[in-house]
Design brief:
single chain; 425 residues; mainly beta; Neuraminidase; 8-stranded antiparallel β-sheet; 29 strands
Length: 425
Amino acid sequence: MKRIILILVLAAVLLTACKDEGKTEQGVKVSPSAAEPTKQVSDPNDTKTDPGDREGGILTGVTAPEIVDPPVVTTVFKNGRKVAEVTDMESATMTDAGILYKLCTMTGRYKADAEYHILNAETGEDRKLGTIRDEGYETRYNRVELNGKIYTLIVKGELDREELQSLILLEIDPAGALTEQVICKDGFAYAMLARCNDCLLIGNHGMSGEKADSVYLYDPKDGSVKEVLRYQEGTQPLRQIYSDGKQVYVLLARAEDGKTQLVIETYDLQFNKLSERDITALGEKANTGALPDEWGGDEFLMHVSRFIVTESGIMYYENFSVTHFLLNLETGEILRDTDAFLAALGGNGELYFDMMKGFEPERDKPNYIYMLDGTKLTRTEYIASDPWYFIMNMSVSNNGTLMMLLEYTDLENINPNLPPMIIVQ
């Protein structure tokens, strides 16, 4: 936390210019006032149909030609200095070893050969670590950095097939190795991953038999996998898991009498249940929006991408739909609730940002970064070199290095001289 605060304080007094081929970048902090998406795969839960499938439509029965996106070059800056350019970079995350990212080559409708790389943010050296063939989905929203390695979950193959897919824990060694560990044979693509001291917690919706939900404990020291919690309810209530190193928190969505209850179960590190709390009323106070009827109309039944519970009693909730909120579990105060409010990956739940400029392009609208200190949320402006840039993604390494992905929002007037930028501080 001290490292992140130092970064933001320095940004307030330094004007950092990145001068290269007419491009500049600067970060400025002013007085406080209070899933990068990738092109790898489509969401199999997307209910939109192909235009050719529309009844009575002009394209009924016609397969539209494949659209090939033009190459996108992302420029990487470190403390104002250009260090690299990467074409078609995807799923970038800051780690102690550098920027972890992928290059994906589609091999099917939903699968791709995913080539993992580490980019040294100081020197620009780019190292290929290995390739996962026919990767169907990666839980990039839950990547974990632990003891010099990076961990993530993947499934392989087409996501719309009926055959069972193994849930695989991928260990990424920045020295140059990818290691796969099968967690279970009936994996769910949107699985859950969290750090618990020197181990990992993995959550899965079973896709066979009784379709039970399970939480597994993985120990990297010996590669052991142990099921520590199991939920046999037919509604598959498990939504996310988190640990602050002292306790384990399990987020459940229980459907009862036509209404979904949000529940947090708390366990000790031996997985003895300590408490259970219904937080439905608190969640309903947040700006939850509404789901279309064809999706069931129940926002809290959606799967959850991020879930954080801090030692000071602050909870962050972010699902795959429109509900994102930060609230005080003790007082019920909602600190922030908008679908554009996102948590940075890493940083122990201390750093957040608004992506609203991406949803509502406004030239003069600022970029906002938020710091959570205990129970206080402080807002800071980030001023980019061009007012059309907005923060698409943010992550923090274990050693406190901050990375922001900036993209251009003026969709009606694309400027080829303002490509995506990664800012490392």
